[in-house]
Amino acid sequence: MGKRSVAIAVTPRQSAILEGFIRTKKSAQQLVERCRVVLLSAAGRHNESQASELGIDRQRVRRWRHRWAKGMASLRAAETAGAKDLDLEKLVLGILTDAARSGAPAKFGAEQIAGIIALACEPPSDSGLPVSHWTPAELSREAIKRGIVESISPRQVDRFLALRTCDRTKANTGLPRGTSVKPPNSTKRMSSGSAISTAPRRRLPRLARTS
């Protein structure tokens, strides 16, 4: 007998997301295939049976079954923390997306990224912090403390936060993400943060020509 397939589980919310990807015409064929692998695996189907039904290699079934198994803890933590459907959807996408192959190997795996996003969905008070919203620096320290990653910079955390929509994080401005700050009507903001006055320019007197 062959090796026993790794058992995985899918919650009702996760199942709805996976089924949604399968039904959506815009979904890439690879994503649809991986969603089916996860659902069939959760239903108890063996790798060989899935490979035969989906017309793919058995190792491919095994790869995505194992990938989902590694990401289950992050998904569960996100749901427990009250992650929104869109946040959970992006976590699922992160688990079922290929890692970049060009250049140097990726420093952070899909499971680590999902773990950081799941952490961002938790109230900071659960980690003993007396604040209502995370900052990239605080998330960086907590991710290292929990062993999600060995090391990570606040800037890298900030890039990962662009993948989520949780309202428990703050941008570097100290304001909750998604909060737009409109500048006063009398000024226009440059990317550097400096202001340019939009008041009418005062016309300078024309100088007389010298002969």
Structure overview:
The protein is mostly helical. It has one domain (12-161). It contains eight helices and two strands. The protein has helices at residues 12-23, 29-42, 47-54, 58-80, 85-95, 110-120, 136-145, 154-161; strands spanning 187-189, 195-197. The chain has a two-stranded antiparallel ribbon with strand order 1-2. Helix 3 (47-54) packs across helix 4 (58-80). The chain is elongated and about 55 Å long. It starts with 11 loop residues before the first helix and ends in a 14-residue tail after the last strand.
What can be said about this structure in brief?
The protein has helices at residues 12-23, 29-42, 47-54, 58-80, 85-95, 110-120, 136-145, 154-161, and strands at residues 187-189, 195-197. With 211 residues, the chain is mainly alpha-helical. The protein has a two-stranded antiparallel sheet.
Question: Any descriptors?
Answer:
single chain, 211 residues, mainly alpha, two-stranded antiparallel sheet, 8 helices, 2 strands, 46% helix, elongated, disordered C terminus
